[in-house]
Amino acid sequence: MGIKDQFQDKAERMQQQGKQRAGQAKDQMQSRNRRRDEDKTDPSSRRRDADESYDA
User: Fold this and answer.
1) Cα separation, 48 vs 36, whole angstroms
2) Lower CB density within 10 Å: C or N end of the chain?
């Protein structure tokens, strides 16, 4: 295997890893947004209670 082939393989692997990481980041953001939406609809939410006590 030549140097060019090694670089090309490495570049392809890095590109695939980048796509995987982007997908994971997208999933994390979606789950965070879901939790935020649940917090807004649930008045007994810990996060909301903490925010209210901080404002006092």
Assistant:
1) 10
2) C
Show Cβ contacts of residue 42 under 8 Å, excluding neighbours closer than 6 positions. Answer: 48
45 to 40, 52, 54: CA distances (angstroms) = 8, 11, 14
pLDDT at 35: 79
Q: b/e for 6-32, b at 16 or more Cβ within 10 A?
A: eeeeeeeeeeeeeeeeeeeeeeeeeee
> What are the pLDDT digits (tens) for 24-51?
999 999 998 887 777 777 655 555 455 5
Residue 47 has a CB neighbour count (10 Å cut-off) of 13
